[in-house]
Amino acid sequence: MHQSFPVRLVAEALGTFVLVFGGCGSAIFAASVIADGPINMGIGFTGVALAFGLTVLTMAYAVGHISGGHFNPAVTLGAALAGRVEWKAVGPYMVTQVVAASIAGLALFGIASGREGFDAVESGFASNGYADRSPDGYSLVAALLAEIILTAIFLYIILGSTDSRAPKGFAPLAIGLGLTLIHLVSIPITNTSVNPARSLGVAWFAGPEALGQVWLFIVAPLIGAAIAGLTYKMLFPNTEDVILER
């Protein structure tokens, strides 16, 4: 990767900001909109899933060639374990992602607060959760399994589509559509994390219960990413150890 390190961090910050602002923003503002009576005009789960996928797809094309387009601490960990990014970049990347996600959460909070009667805690503010905070009441164990498995799948998609043997130029499509699929599966379970930065970015504003459960959405994605990062080269040997580029 030939960009200076500060420029790479700026690219990660921008991409992560857009992911959280666009994905969580779609859930906060557009998932359920009542207009002119009881008819729900919102985009629903499918629309939110597409919004998350589109943010990653578009920003991977926009800045992936600069930073690798991780936008997610779990992706950074998995990429490092697979030999696709240097270990000295891991800490700065993760810090940048969490800070950018939190700024996006703050921006969303500022906009949402402009609506009369808005309550971030009561609305959930697109935060992740399990048990009584799961959209459909799934347990802690169910949430843990879902987040580990789906993050591992996400990393396999990323590592496979950016493999030196893969068709060039299509990785953002595979990754964005993969994230859409993951959201279609897991929004009812946890509101979908697979990204600790995304979870923390809005949890700060969603109240103590959201913050009390956010640990799962840090630990589970990192475990899933580590599984994929450590096993990819064993499952699909003879890949080149190149820096993750999209």
UniProtKB/TrEMBL annotation:
Q: Where does this protein chiefly localize?
A: membrane
Would the keyword Transcription be found if you checked this record's keyword annotation? no
- Provide the topology term for how it sits in the membrane: Multi-pass membrane protein
Quote the InterPro entries the UniProt record gives. Answer: Aquaporin-like (IPR023271), Aquaporin_transptr (IPR034294), MIP (IPR000425), MIP_CS (IPR022357)
Q: Where in the cell is it found?
A: Cell membrane
Question: What Gene3D superfamilies does the entry give?
Answer: Glycerol uptake facilitator protein
The similarity comment for this entry is:
Belongs to the MIP/aquaporin (TC 1.A.8) family.
Name recorded for this polypeptide: Aquaporin Z
State the organism named in the record: Zhihengliuella alba
